[in-house]
Every structure is written in structure tokens, then in C-alpha cells.
């Protein structure tokens, strides 16, 4: 079994609920895609609405705002609908959007068939984490919007 | 080379041959020295001759260009302590910025961070440090580079790809002599 890789301690400190029994790193750090793009099942663009000179793009038809409403529209466009819970549902794949208490969206993660989640941590690495709570805290706030769509392809096993 | 002349009763420069021969004079006939640069040097020389010191920043840049060195290398040679302090300040701010915003997906949130804004406020002095940081590890330094240089070397065809934006800035940094 390949040896599991973890984030440097300096990065782990950003996520107090992330313990080494709950996660492992699945990629190197990369500025070519971000968590929103990754949660949508891609790794080909840094989706951010207001920074066209910084290499960022934003899907056509989505309001050019960084807020929960715009992110819901973005995921609507690729077939996701808001749902109640993050629990695994057979025949569906889910994403979760994190936000701070003031409503500012911070992060999105996508679910694996095992019920674990995969996340791209900003400019940092991708990780697979056991639960949404692993990334909750001061940086990302709480996972509070869940969306699902019929499974497009066999879910990655976790 | 400050020298107090007892006869003139004022400071003078010692321009005896034995001192002046050690000063490396730039070759202004070199084709890399443009006519604009020559005109600029002449204008500044004439200004000094009548007692008006030109703008220090402009003069530093012209002298660096005449010698064919990047401005930051001239500054490092002339004021190493100042440059070392600037480098230490940049490193401290950059480490804080990376640590506190690396996990964010909103570029707007990244560039609003106080450490990033303080790097921008360092001005042109920060440019070689930013470029070296970008070369070492790709990150969203582009806003800081635009603000500190007043330039944007990124072509429209490259603007939708962070790696290509980074490559454009690194190429610009080499052309301008900020990077080896």
C-alpha cells in the first residue's frame, strides 16, 4: 500500500479539525484550478468572477459575483440542485459549499461514493477527507449548502 | 571621495587620476545605450551643473541603465543594508500571506490581505523579490506586480491561464533584468 502523504504542519494548522487519521493528500499544489472548479469535477480553470487579469475565468451565464447565490447558479448549470443533507444517496453525486457566518462562500468539496469528500485547498494541494467537518473552522466556516445531481459517471471510490 | 579643500574652503571631489582611474566609467558608445538614455543623462548633467539635483529615482535608473545593470543590483551594491532590510520585510510579509490565504479560492480575498497590500506599498523595491517568489512557487502575485510596476505584459490569449500569466511575468522579469 502506498505511503500516505500529508500536508505540511504549517498548512494543517489552518484546519484544527483535520487530523492525520482523517485525510491524505492526493495531488501537488497547483494554481491552475481551484476548489469550485474541482468540486464541479474538473481541473482546468481557476473559477473566480472578478479577476480576469490574474488568470481566472468564470463560467458563462453565471452572475459575476462571489456569493452563495452565484455559486448555486454555477452548480445548477451543470445539473446540481440544492438538497437537504450531505449524506450519501445512491444514484446521486453531491457537492457541499462552505461559508462563513456572514454568508461569504469560502470553499466547495465533492463527495465520493464512500461518503468521504475531495477538496482542492485554494492554491494548495487536493486532499481526500473523511467528513465535511474536517475543514470547518475559522478559515472555511461551515459546510452549509448541499447540492446533488444524478450520478454522471461511476463515482470515484474513496 | 568627499574632500575638504582648504583653499576653496568647501568640499570637493578628489578627481586626481590616481583616484579616478579606479572608477569604472560606463561605455556610452555601446549600442545598448539608447539615444533617449543619452539625452536623459545629458539633461541631468546640465541640471547638476547649475546646482539643481535631478530626481534621485530617475537618476538611479539612468545610471543603472548606462552601466547595463538592473536597478536592484545597483541598489544592492550601493545600499546593501537597505536592500537586505527590504528583502527581510518581503519574506516576512510573503510568508504570512501564503500561510493565511493559500487555502482560499477567491483571488479578491487573497489580494485584499493586509500583508499583500503592504508588499504592494513597498513599490518597485519589492519587484525582484516578488518575481523570485513567483519563480520559486507559482501563486497569485500578479496584482502586486501590476501595481508595483505599472505594467501588464500578459497578452489577452494568456490571461485565462494562471500558469501562462506567471510565465509572461517571469519572461518580463528576465527582459527587465530583475531575474538572472
Explain what this protein looks like in three dimensions.
The complex is a heterodimer of chains A (158) and B (180). Chain A is built from three helices and nine strands; from the N terminus they run H-E-H-E-E-H-E-E-E-E-E-E. Chain A has helices at 9-12, 35-39, 68-77, and strands at residues 23-25, 46-47, 56-57, 81-83, 92-99, 105-111, 117-120, 126-129, 142-150. In chain A, the strands form two sheets. A seven-stranded antiparallel sheet of chain A has the order 1-8-7-6-5-9-4. In chain A, strands 2-3 form a two-stranded parallel ribbon. Chain B is mainly alpha-helical. Helix content of chain B is 59%, strand content 4%. Chain B is built from ten helices and two strands; from the N terminus they run E-E-H-H-H-H-H-H-H-H-H-H. The longest helix of chain B is centred in the middle third of the chain and has 22 residues, at 80-101. The two termini of chain B are 32 Å apart. The A-B interface holds A 10-11, 14-15, 29-32, 34-36, 45-48, 50-57, 66, 106-108, 120-124, 139-140 and B 99, 101-108, 137-140, 142-143, 146, 152, 154, 159-166.
Amino acid at each position: 500500500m502506498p505511503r500516505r502523504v500529508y500536508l505540511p504542519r504549517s498548512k494543517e494548522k489552518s484546519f484544527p479539525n483535520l487530523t492525520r487519521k482523517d485525510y491524505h493528500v492526493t495531488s501537488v499544489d497547483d494554481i491552475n484550478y481551484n476548489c469550485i472548479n474541482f468540486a464541479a469535477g474538473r481541473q482546468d480553470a481557476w473559477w473566480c468572477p472578478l479577476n480576469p487579469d490574474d488568470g481566472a475565468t468564470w463560467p458563462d451565464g453565471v452572475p459575476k459575483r462571489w456569493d452563495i447565490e452565484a455559486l448555486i447558479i454555477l452548480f445548477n448549470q451543470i445539473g446540481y440542485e440544492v438538497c437537504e443533507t450531505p449524506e450519501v444517496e445512491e444514484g446521486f453525486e453531491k457537492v457541499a459549499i462552505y461559508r462563513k457566518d456572514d454568508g461569504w462562500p469560502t470553499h466547495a468539496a465533492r463527495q465520493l461514493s464512500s461518503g468521504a469528500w475531495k477538496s482542492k485547498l485554494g492554491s494548495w494541494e487536493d486532499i481526500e477527507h473523511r467528513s465535511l467537518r474536517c475543514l470547518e473552522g475559522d478559515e472555511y466556516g461551515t459546510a452549509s449548502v448541499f447540492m446533488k445531481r444524478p450520478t454522471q459517471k461511476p463515482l470515484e471510490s474513496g | 571621495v568627499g574632500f575638504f579643500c582648504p583653499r576653496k574652503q568647501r568640499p570637493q571631489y578628489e578627481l586626481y587620476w590616481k583616484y579616478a582611474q579606479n572608477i569604472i566609467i560606463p561605455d556610452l558608445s555601446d549600442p545598448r545605450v539608447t539615444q533617449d538614455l543619452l539625452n536623459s543623462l545629458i539633461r541631468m548633467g546640465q541640471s547638476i551643473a547649475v546646482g539643481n539635483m535631478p530626481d534621485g529615482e530617475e537618476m538611479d535608473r539612468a545610471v543603472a541603465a548606462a552601466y547595463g545593470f538592473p536597478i536592484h543590483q545597483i541598489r544592492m551594491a550601493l545600499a546593501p543594508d537597505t536592500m537586505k532590510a527590504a528583502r527581510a520585510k518581503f519574506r516576512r510579509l510573503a510568508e504570512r500571506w501564503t500561510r493565511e490565504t493559500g487555502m482560499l479560492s477567491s483571488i479578491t480575498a487573497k489580494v485584499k490581505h493586509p500583508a499583500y497590500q503592504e508588499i504592494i506599498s513597498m513599490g518597485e523595491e519589492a519587484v525582484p523579490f516578488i518575481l523570485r517568489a513567483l519563480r520559486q512557487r507559482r501563486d497569485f502575485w500578479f496584482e502586486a506586480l501590476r501595481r508595483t510596476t505599472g505594467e501588464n505584459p500578459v497578452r489577452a490569449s494568456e490571461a485565462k491561464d494562471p500558469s501562462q500569466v506567471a510565465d509572461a511575468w517571469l519572461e518580463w522579469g528576465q527582459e527587465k533584468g530583475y531575474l538572472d
